[in-house]
From TrEMBL:
Name recorded for this polypeptide: Uncharacterized protein
Keyword Lipid biosynthesis recorded: no
Keyword annotations: Apoplast, Secreted, Signal
Signal peptide interval: 1-26
Organism listed in the record: Eutrema salsugineum
Pfam families the record matches: Phi_1
A Gene Ontology BP annotation from the UniProt entry: response to hypoxia
Subcellular location: Secreted, Extracellular space, Apoplast
Family indicated by similarity: Belongs to the EXORDIUM family.
Main location: secreted
GO CC terms: apoplast
Length: 311
């Protein structure tokens, strides 16, 4: 993120203007690449891939069910039966599938819910580093899998709330060269205005009343939003050389390129036009397995070069 400093001296302002003009006039091809979504010739996730969930800390069974039902909604069997209940999680994922049509390999990706590992004893403490997250992720099966580490509300994770609401990356496995993993944290008590918006008032910017979480859990519904965005990024850019916009060190991916957009007409402080459940008053834009309703982020559509929403 760039920082801009405004000086009080008119000469300094003029100098800044001249420098900016020269920089704009001297755009290189690489700069142009930063401004558009590019495929960098690397691998995408392909094949029959299991989503393994590593629960770190204490989660209620009802909380775990919110996430497992979301992952189940992405499976092939659920997606075939979901066409009659649009807008659905399955329809949302179709935007990710378009990325596979833009590569020469034309591989396919089929997701399913894999194993679940519970670590309720906080085996690595309640303050985790990047190294700890990677070690936890390595506990899951690594071949044809994405290992998702979900941390409880009382666990601090390095970098969380400061510059991110979750992350994805890759680790080195024992039997395979690399495996993909995702880290998602529960922000309910740490930074809900940053990582669970629009279910909590934002930390800054336009203030509007928070929406009711569709599963009545601000922390877990916020985790689903971030997990959804990170899954899209992991599928299309698992090892840092797939689809993204901007520099490799700080890429905008399929999900993160559309942060804060959930429905038609969205703008800062307003999530967009959404559906509202008549009984719970929860706001949502997608239906999932077992009667679940979710709020899912917009995804960058390669065909339209714009953020695509379900509504």
């Amino acid at each position: 993120m760039a920082s801009f400093i405004l000086g009080h001296n008119l000469g300094v302002l003029f100098l800044l203007f001249v420098v900016a003009f020269v920089c704009l006039d001297a755009k290189t091809d690489k700069t142009q690449d930063y401004m558009s979504f590019q495929y960098h010739k690397g691998a995408l996730l392909t094949g029959d891939v299991s989503i393994n969930l590593i629960w770190y800390g204490k989660f209620k069974p009802s909380q775990r069910a919110i996430v497992t039902d979301f992952v189940t909604s992405l499976s092939s069997s659920s997606r075939r039966s979901a066409t009659a209940q649009n807008p659905s999680v399955a329809t949302w994922w179709k935007t990710v599938e378009k990325y596979y049509h833009k590569t020469t390999t034309r591989g396919h990706l089929a997701l399913s819910l894999g194993e679940q590992i519970l670590d309720e004893s906080y085996s690595m403490g309640k303050s985790l580093t990047e190294r700890n997250i990677k070690a936890l992720a390595a506990k899951g099966r690594q071949s044809y899998a994405v290992n998702v580490v979900l941390t409880a509300a009382d666990v601090m994770v390095q970098g969380f709330c400061m510059n991110r609401c979750g992350s994805h990356g890759s680790g080195s496995g024992k039997k395979i060269s690399k495996f993909a993993y995702i880290s998602v944290e529960n922000s309910e008590t740490q930074c809900p205005g940053q990582c669970a918006w629009p279910f909590h008032a934002p930390v800054y910017g336009p203030q509007s009343p928070p929406l009711v979480a569709p599963n009545n859990d601000v922390g877990l519904d916020g985790m689903v939003i971030n997990l959804a965005s990170l899954l899209a990024g992991t599928a299309t850019n698992p090892f840092g050389d797939g689809f993204y916009q901007g520099p490799k060190t700080a890429p905008l991916e399929a999900g993160s390129a559309c942060s804060g957009v959930y429905g038609k007409g969205s703008y800062p402080g307003y999530a967009g036009e959404l559906l509202v459940d008549a009984m719970s008053r929860g706001s949502y834009n997608a239906k999932g397995a077992n009667g679940r309703k979710y709020l899912l982020p917009a995804l960058f559509d390669l065909e339209t070069s714009a953020c695509s929403t379900l509504l």
